[in-house]
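Give me the fold.
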Amino acid sequence: MDAAGDVETSQELRTAPHLRAEFERSTLPRHLALFYRSPETQLTAAATYVGYGLRNDRRCLYLADDNTPAQIESAFEAAGIDVAARTAADDLRIRDAGEVYLDAGFDPDRLISILKDACKAAVDDGYDGLLVAGENTWSFHTDTSFDHVLDFEADFDADSPNMPVTALCQYDLSRFCESSIAKAIRTHERIIYRNTLCENPYYLPPTEYRATEDPDLNVRLMLEQTHDLARSRQQVERREQRLAVVNRVLRHNVRNEMNVIRGYLDRLRSEASLRPAAERWIETAIDHLDDMVEMSDKARYVQDSLGSGTAEHLDLGTVLGRAVEQARRDYPGATIEVHGETGVSVLADTNLDAALTELVTTAAAARSEDQPAVTVLVDNSGVERVRIEVGVPEWEIPENDRRAVQEGEETKLEHADGLGLWFVKWIVESTQGTMTLPDDGADVRIDLPRAQ
């Protein structure tokens, strides 16, 4: 492989947690395709996919051809899968693809029947369905043309569409020709490329694929879809340009003007001749200006940092500890109590630090003299998720903030007073976490995936 390929592979391996996050927050179609250039990339993506199936109570069947069972098991173990235990429980089966597909000759009807039976057996055994991952290099061992293999895949899609099975076909870009890859793209609703789960604009449903005389040369379809994608991309670029201009004005010009206003207010406050009422008015104006400056700084952080975070395994105790210490420095009169076992690793955005600091600090600011304590409760008893609840007794989150964040959009009538809760929500949900605001209004609840 050339140097560019090596760099690309290392980038794919580093972003494997992102693929896991995409699996968790997506509803997978019944038929996906993985396109890869190296065995490392292939096995990392396949192991992430199988891990998703096991976590979601699917029996997993891996059909091997290019890789040995030992290589597959090693990749699965590296992804946190206990292969021995899962195999013993019959949750995971690793079989030779050639034995399944070619043992009695290539017979599409027989193969579909095998998949149906395997899916039914999985459901009968108490699983939610069957998840299959197959190395498609088995097709090199048959005299059947690749078109017949793809016809089988289209027939699989069309047959029993409600069957609870999800299949991942794996294509080595260095071994399949461009024509075969183009046809494979046509027959898979979603694809995995560079460890990214992609919507496939070139997918053809089975009936359309079979009705198209020359599916890999359907130029009109490709041109129309390419045109639509280009228009969408142009619209996004124009919108991002407008947002960048507005953001720059808010971050720089408005902030500078507010600092000038604050300077004049400070000078007025120092005048000895001010009446007590005027002093209160000035203090109120300064408080509002400080809030605006803080919001401007938060908007700057959102613009500069939020999109650059990556999904990583983070020690919750360390991250939460920093957030609590910052809140104590900002509000020395606040009592912040942390309950529960924090020694757990979570899969989260690297900006989780900032989100928890925002949340704990906001709670500390919301406390009253009668209710000075902020409570941070960590519950890591779940198998897949770790829950964090931050609250103050009698803390009432403004109803506008609650509705805007819960409904996921700002409207003329329902809009949040600031960026704080949005800020936390965007960071938490960037890696399949969730943020909820319980109806009792007493706390903010965050659920993060436990690192495997």
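The chain has three domains: 3-217, 229-308, 311-452.
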